């Protein structure tokens, strides 16, 4: 699916105080990968095309182009580029 446009739903997470790094997680913040629940395959970096005002743990649907990360340990295994988000309904 590398390079294909996909749509995925999960929990919105913010990684820094400047709100410049975002993740989509299978689990809410209190039980996400970083807290010991699940593995690195349960999170995805989000590269948005515009700013959003979602709060941590909002359930959102995101569409974008899937990129696989095999070499940069600063990012997740999955990166969603050109991401556009919608509140989950």
Automatic annotation (TrEMBL):
It comes from the Bacteria. This is DUF3299 domain-containing protein. It comes from Aureicoccus marinus. The lineage of its organism: Bacteria, Pseudomonadati, Bacteroidota, Flavobacteriia, Flavobacteriales.
